[in-house]
Amino acid sequence: MFLIHAFVIDDDQDTIKKMETYSTENPDMITIVGSAKSIATSQHALSQLQPDLIIVRATKNNFSHLESLRAFDFSVKYICMGVKEDAFQAFKLEAVDFLVFPFDADEFTSALLKVKYAIEREAAFVQLKNTTFSAGFLGHANKDFFVVSSIDKIEIIKFTEVLYCKADGKYTEIFLQNGTKIVSSKNIGEYQQLFPSHYFFRIHNSTLINVHHIVRINKKDGLYCELNNGQDLPVAKRKEREFLLYLREN
């Protein structure tokens, strides 16, 4: 069974202890990897732990910060908990389920099963797409293109046509040489793994660039990559040395 790694955001230690006890009693279902009193104090821990599930108390303050949580570079799921009146807002923010206080083990189990199903369904969909397009359909083992699927169409894009990719929360904007912008539901980390490394380098946490479209590197006030369309893209300070070494070796 898929083990859910969960992070709890609640200022009620009693509720957290009940969930930790549940985790101990159901070790094949869930493990609590960390906790915090509010979303505002949880950002660093979440970026380090990257849980599958965030269980968050439904408060006005947490709701106001929930959008920033949804922008993390992982496909995290959410369960909100609180009073019935907060359920509508929770589902509006794409919570998988809502738990009404007080804590109930059976309701928690039901919510976790929904999370497990959602994660496994997404994983199966990704595997199906990769199998369909990587194992011979519309191409060959060393194909020079990738696909971006939407509800009504499938875009087939050559790697050489991509200028750069830009992270937009959990989505990725793909900018092409012809001026087109395509939005993908995959995060930029997935494209970094998918794209050939001799074409692409991640110059910034939010930017993956096709080095074959760089015409010069400008060094004034940091490194900037000038593309053949005249656009300048900054290189993160911590990436400068690695990027210059990459260019020399390639």
Quick rundown:
The chain is α/β, with parallel strands linked by helices and 250 residues long. Helices cover 33% and strands 30% of the residues.
Shape: elongated
The count of strands amounts to 15
Q: What's the overall average pLDDT, rounded?
A: 85
Residue ranges: pLDDT <50 for 5 or more in a row?
A: 133-141
Q: Biggest sheet: strands, sense, closure?
A: 5 strands, parallel
Q: Note the gap between the termini.
A: 43 Å
**How is the largest sheet built, in terms of strand order?**
2-1-3-4-5
* Helical percentage: 25-40%
Number of helices: 7
Beta-sheet strand percentage? 25-35%
- Our Rg estimate from Cα atoms comes to 21 Å
What structural category characterises the helix and strand content? alpha/beta
Order of secondary-structure elements: EHEHEHEHEHEEEEEHEEEEEH
Explain this structure to me?
The chain is of the alpha/beta class and 250 residues long. It has helices spanning 13-25, 43-49, 60-69, 87-92, 105-134, 188-194, 240-249; strands at residues 4-9, 30-36, 53-57, 77-82, 97-100, 145-149, 154-158, 162-168, 171-176, 181-184, 200-204, 207-210, 214-218, 224-227, 232-234. The termini are far apart. Residues 133-141 have low confidence and may be disordered.
Keywords:
250 residues, five-stranded antiparallel β-sheet, 7 helices, 15 strands, five-stranded parallel β-sheet
